[in-house]
Design goal:
There is one protein chain. This protein is an alpha/beta fold. The chain has 14 helices and 16 strands. β11 and β12 form a beta hairpin. The two termini are about 20 Å apart.
Length: about 350
């Protein structure tokens, strides 16, 4: 059976990266291609565990040696913080070690987007114009825990990180819980929520939507099925944006890289990265390179589980394979053929 080949660099990443990119087909696909967008989360200020600039610089140097004009790219955040405007993000990136002098290429932060209609609950999404205009795309992701998805990697970096604020807001608010039936007042949803997004008042569930990001754990926990998402589950919404973006960006070459180092409990959007929940949650594993985000994230989750069991689900009460399984189901309905992955270790 044909397998999705994922190159797995276990050690000496800076020295082995050029060989790994050749084996993965990146060097061939990007040879003299032109403008290559390197999509990267450069870390909220205060977080010290994003992908290290030295690793990013190595990717940039290899792309430049292939005759390309790479640029680092990200979109501003929906939430207030050190990255919610392009100017604030550029300053934060500089403080975190990402500037053209260090990385060797321009850094572009933009909310400019092209609107694309979808057939799902969102209806339309706004995809970053910088990616749409690039000749090739490298999605460079830090693998870590995520409070809404269990695991944050390539899929999250594409489906949430490559869209404008309007779509980011839709992903979170359209999946928030609402009452769909009589609440029994058992309080299990309150116990399940790790974000103080739900409480009981007069024996019924009351939602604090300012703290709720639509993870859906309360909906799954309710024993009487009294809760439902406003429009669709967060997994369904992520699947909608993911497949829409992939379809919009193809046939230009897209490669995915997951860096499984400094594996934090929570995503790089948190200034503390979840240190209060213990860090690191797993020893460094290495770096994965491939052409399929679903396979890359599946392999990442499997490797973390192999090293430290079900730590991701224990922290966030979300099965990290939940999103993967939703995407696989939706891929099947779309006629997209998914194949098993195979690790090629260096």
């Amino acid at each position: 059976m044909t397998c999705e080949k994922i190159v797995f660099v276990k050690s000496n990443i800076l020295y082995n990266l050029e060989t790994a990119l050749k084996i993965a087909g990146v060097a061939q696909a990007f040879d003299g291609l032109g403008k290559v967008a390197v999509k990267l989360h450069m870390g909220e200020y205060g977080n010290l565990h994003y992908i290290r600039p030295a690793i990013v610089r190595q990717f940039v140097d290899i792309l430049k040696n292939l005759g390309n004009s790479p640029f680092l790219f990200d979109t501003p955040t929906l939430y207030s913080g050190s990255r919610d405007t392009p100017s604030k993000y550029i300053d934060t990136a500089r403080r975190n070690g990402f500037c053209s002098e260090v990385i060797g290429c321009p850094i572009i932060i933009s909310d400019g987007a092209s609107e694309i209609a979808t057939k799902g609950a969102i209806g339309s999404i706004k995809v970053a114009k910088a990616l749409c205009k690039a000749d090739g795309i490298l999605i460079l992701s830090h693998g870590k825990g995520h409070p809404d998805l269990g695991f944050g990697g390539a899929i999250k970096n594409l489906a949430m990180g490559c869209v404008a604020k309007k779509t980011k807001k839709d992903l979170h608010t359209m999946s928030q819980p609402v009452l769909a039936a009589e609440c029994g007042g058992c309080g299990k949803c309150v116990d399940a929520c790790t974000k103080e997004g739900i409480s009981l008042k007069d024996g019924k569930a009351v939602f604090n939507y300012d703290n709720c990001f639509g993870c859906g754990v309360c909906i799954q926990t309710c024993p009487v099925q009294a809760l439902k998402p406003r429009s669709a589950s967060i997994d369904t919404l992520f699947s909608e944006t993911f497949f829409t973006i992939v379809e919009a960006l193809r046939p230009k070459p897209i490669f995915f890289v997951n860096v499984l180092m400094d594996i934090t409990p929570r995503c790089d959007c948190f200034p503390s990265a979840g240190k209060d929940e213990g860090f690191p949650i797993c020893s460094d594993i290495g770096l994965l390179i491939g052409t399929d985000a679903i396979s890359i994230d599946s392999a990442s989750i499997d490797l973390i589980a192999k090293n430290c069991g079900d730590i991701l689900e224990k922290i966030h009460h979300v099965n990290p394979m939940r999103l993967i399984n939703t995407l696989k189901k939706d891929a099947n309905s779309k006629g997209v053929k998914l194949i098993p992955y195979e690790l090629l270790a260096l």
